[in-house]
Amino acid sequence: ASAKQILLSTNPASGQPDYLPSVAAFLGLSQQLPMHASVVVGLLRTLSRHPAYQWKMAQLLRRVGGQELQGNCAALLDVSSLRCPLWEEDELDPEAITSERDLRGRTALSVLELLLESLQGADSSMAIFLLGFKADAPSESLIEEAGVSGCPRTALHAVAEMVELALDRELDSLEWRGLLEPAGRVLAELCGHALLGPPTLRFLRSAHSLFAAIVIRLCSYPLQPDMQPSERGFLAHLHMLLAEELAHLLNSGQTSQTHRLLVPLLSDQTSSSGFDATLADPTLSQSHFLSQTLGALSRTTTGFLSRKDQGGGGGPLLRLLLQ
């Protein structure tokens, strides 16, 4: 049998499928054994790349490790104890990293890559589990702040806090700026996901007021051609998050909330878009509101129109413009 099959098999000594949970328990010892934790994350990534294994692995870890494992995974994304610069590809081998803070940063990057690979693959079971969504009905998940109504701290809380922390900082000053682009991409993938999007948007809106903070950041630091690719990527993901929230609000007929998000951004971009912010009036008709605000926004944030979602269509603004 292969190592993958053994890890998911029943232990004859205990009569339980406890090989993988026993290995995953090393994630809870990341402070004492950071290299062990890094190796375990790499192992989970390898297993998750096989859809036939991912579902079984997620179900097993959910049943045996549960909330403790979710919390351990979230702790690996604690930016206060790590360093993650913009490494070159040949610098990413954990065995080549000598600094403990750098090793923790590489492990955190692997966690984000695990989440992204799961979200973008044929089976998202591991991401659904580690991010705290229900296994049987992920779209009905109610995610609160950690500790509220018994909600555990998960990777979703850690990623949201990471992005929120970066919104009022100079990105070049962050020791963990190498995590920004993948962290932003995780949230963008979640918000654009057919099943996970609505509960994620609800959580980010209610627990973090993230979208208002994104508007402030985009007004202060618009996309520029000379930005570093990672910084442009991070800001582009912020645009995508905002676009998904606008699509949700407008599809729900919540034009007053949309107005509060759009006016600061569009007023700041008036010179380049030719948009008159006074037209973004929530009392206007839905079609007029859409044509004025979304048409102007699409001209100032080009990434909105090019995003491909799971349905194969364009980004949320393009879908709305075509309605």
Features:
323 residues; mainly alpha; 17 helices; 59% helix; globular
What topology does this entry show?
Blueprint: H1 3-7, H2 19-24, H3 34-48, H4 51-64, H5 66-75, H6 100-120, H7 125-130, H8 155-166, H9 180-191, H10 197-207, H11 210-220, H12 229-251, H13 255-268, H14 270-273, H15 286-300, H16 303-306, H17 316-321
Helix pairs in contact: 3-6, 5-8, 6-9, 8-9, 9-10, 9-12, 11-12, 11-13, 13-15
Name the structural class.
mainly alpha
Distance between the termini: 54 Å
- Overall radius of gyration: 21 Å
Number of distinct beta strands: 0
Oligomer designation = single chain
In which range does the helix fraction lie? 55-70%
Give the low-confidence spans.
Answer: 269-293, 296-323
Shape assignment: globular
- Average pLDDT, rounded to a whole number, is 79
Number of helices: 17
Describe the main β-sheet briefly: none
The proportion of residues in beta strands is under 5%
Order of helices and strands: HHHHHHHHHHHHHHHHH
